[in-house]
From TrEMBL:
SUPFAM superfamilies: 6-phosphogluconate dehydrogenase C-terminal domain-like, NAD(P)-binding Rossmann-fold domains. It is found in: Cytoplasm. Sn-glycerol 3-phosphate binds at residues 109, 153, 208, 261, 271-273. The active site is at 208 (proton acceptor). Keywords: Cytoplasm, Lipid biosynthesis, Lipid metabolism, NAD, NADP, Nucleotide-binding, Oxidoreductase, Phospholipid biosynthesis, Phospholipid metabolism. Residues 12-176 form the Glycerol-3-phosphate dehydrogenase NAD-dependent N-terminal domain. The keyword RNA-binding does not apply. Its main location: cytoplasm. Signal peptide: none annotated. This is Glycerol-3-phosphate dehydrogenase [NAD(P)+]. The keyword Cytoplasm applies. The gene is gpsA. Its EC number is 1.1.1.94.
Amino acid sequence: MTLKNSSEEKTIGVVGLGSFGTAIARMLAEKNPVVAYARRAELVDEINQNHSIDGQPVSKNIIATQDPEMLCKSCEILFFMVPSSAFQEVVRAFSPYLYPYHIIIHGTKGLCLNLPNGKSLSDMKVISRENILTMSEVILKETVVVRVGCLAGPNLAKELSKGQPAATVVASKYNEVIHQGQNLLRSDKFQVYGNSDIIGVELSGVLKNIIAIASGALAGLGLGENAKGLLISRGMVELIYLGNALGGSLKSFVGLAGIGDLVTTCNSTLSRNYTVGYRLAQGESLETIQNTMSEVAEGINTVRLMKTFVEGTGMRAPITENLYKVLFEDLLIEDALQYLMKYPFSVDVDFL
């Protein structure tokens, strides 16, 4: 793809250079200059001096900084690609330099807690929707930015980095945000769809990680495609129930960001969440797995958070509840599977 004329170029900011952030920075740099924020000084030097990220070549269109103010002054459109565990902290660091004219699109498939000062999830017996923030809600809460969007879909970073065909969804209440995301990212090998239900699209990306962990566990046990088909279909029902309770729309859950991402992550060894489940079934402890993974598997925290939410609503989410017991209460995966096989689902598709 050829670069635009300099008169048409706009500098785009990317905050966070994990595998997905790096893939998005590469794609953005095909059309426009990119300023990327990284915490590690050695990574900033590597990008600016060697035009590489962890030894892998990147476009000379990408420069790096550790200065949030410089990035915000240089860019009106920012892509936040930060793990959910650090998302609020990073947004707060950028907040003094953000203005209403900025547009932020995030690519984080996690949730943040909104609890009274000094409280943690372990202090709460139950939580409600008001205690849960999607990443767009974090941005709206912590900054004066109004035009916010999210990026979600079956977007395995390694495949994107290789230029393999894929698609994503840019979701926002503002058509301008959707159009900007499409214009910046769309190419011959990357399709970008729009969706106005930002909460539903965010929740699709978040909740499918629960089912991906369970799918990896089935693979780790050596079970076949029938079992996986059962899990994915029942997992889709559970995703929709939980997503509706959190304010999402059915249309988003059955679209690319929902079922599309679910099918991908439940079948790919490139998925961090799938890998967690697989390694658990192979006998590794959760602590060992987390300590040896280079990036965060968002589904682990999502399981913990959604289990507490479900208990406060009176809903049942059998896959989430049993996966919680596997992750945090030493329930054997085989016992969890036996429970789910006996669970009295009343009808096949009971969310319509």
